[in-house]
Amino acid sequence: MTQAKEGMEYLIKQVQTDDEELDAFLFSLGCYAGAPITVVSHLKGGCVVSIKDGRYNMDTQLASAIEI
Fold first, then answer.
1. Rounded CA gap, 5 and 1, in Å?
2. What is the pLDDT of residue 2?
3. CB atoms within 10 A of CB 63
4. By the 8 A CB rule, do 38 and 7 touch?
């Protein structure tokens, strides 16, 4: 996810975290396998992504858990 190009839409292959609460939170945002995700911009220490109708700021650790 951290290497994704800005403005391109990708499909999420999988989300890998070791935290069930984090998995549930990401799922509630619409971040799950098969869902589209777009990197809006890269920031120092993370990125801004668009999932469904929302924009979210993710740190590098969280963004790296999302495989596209």
1. 9
2. 76
3. 23
4. yes
pLDDT digits (tens, 9 = 90+) for 16-59: 988 999 999 999 999 999 999 999 999 999 999 999 989 999 99
Cα 68 to chain centroid, rounded: 9
Residue in the block written with tokens 């839409």: 9
Q: Chain centroid to CA 55: how far?
A: 10
- Token match 């990708």: residue? 10
- Residue 24 to residue 8: CA distance in whole angstroms: 25
- The helix or strand, by DSSP H or E, that contains position 39, with its residue range, turns out to be strand 36-43
Question: What pTM, to 2 d.p., does this model score?
Answer: 0.86
Q: Which residue has the tokens 């190009």?
A: 5
Encoded tokens for 8:
């391109």
